[in-house]
Structure formats: C-alpha cells, structure tokens
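User: Could you check the structure of this?
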Amino acid sequence: MLKEQASLTAEIKPRPEAVSVEELVKRAVRGVLPPEEKLRFEGAADRKNIRVDPDLMEQVFRELILYAARRVEKDLELTVRVHDYGEKVCISLHDNGPTIPCDEKDRIFDPFSDYGRSPRGWGLPTVRRIIEAHGGKIEVGRSEVGAQFLIYLPSKGAPE
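Assistant: Sure, the predicted structure tokens are below.
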C-alpha cells in the first residue's frame, strides 16, 4: 500500500529520447501476454518515432495491456494506431473486450477508484500521471466493441 501511495505522489521526471511506438509496445507485451494473443499495428504505428522516456512509456503500455488482459478472458486482440493530430501525436490502443461503461469513463483514472487499479498498484491513475509528465493526456475513446484508450503526446516530445 505504501509503494502504491508513493507511485501516486512521487514526482515523475521523464528523460526523453527518440523511440519507435512499435518497439515500446512490443517490449511492454513481452512476458505479459502469451504468444497466441493478437497484436496489430495500423497507420504509422510500425514506423512512428516519438520523444518519450522509453522506460516510463513502456510501463504505460504494459499497464494498459494488463488492464485489457484482465477484462478479456480469452483470445485478446489489441490494435495500436498512430496518427498526427495537429501538434500532437495520437496513439490509440484498442482491445476486443467489453466496453467501458459510461459512468466509469470519468472515474477510471481516479486514484481512489478500484476500476482502474491493478494488482501491482500502478494502474491507470499512474498511467495518467506518466503521460501528463510527458506533456500529454489520456482519455477513454468511444467504441462500440472493446475499450479504447487515446494517448495524446506533443509531436516534439516531452518537456525537458
């Protein structure tokens, strides 16, 4: 519990460097998902480089993937899309599980809500803090099927 509280209050200082979105997601998946689970990259996701702290953003993707895996009982499918969105880059992570109820969308990143917490204690509240430390934001997207998370990061990278 103390470690969880510390992760919610400790200052996050990203050390940005250029890294590919595809490599970050693949690193996050290793050891988390069985090989039979499907991971698909669309748009520029397989070739887009972003300036982020690779260790912190790997944790972001790992938590989002673990969140999806807890919600999808069998045959998880993940789609990663990347596209430019003005002066930001939008990274979309979409799974084939149940949708997130409307009443939970606003609370999912709340550190006092059980909805977005993980057994390890990082969970979605810390995911939001890491993304905000990079000058970005995360939100739950609209989806007919599955959960969709939209991560917006500055095109020029995290503030240094």
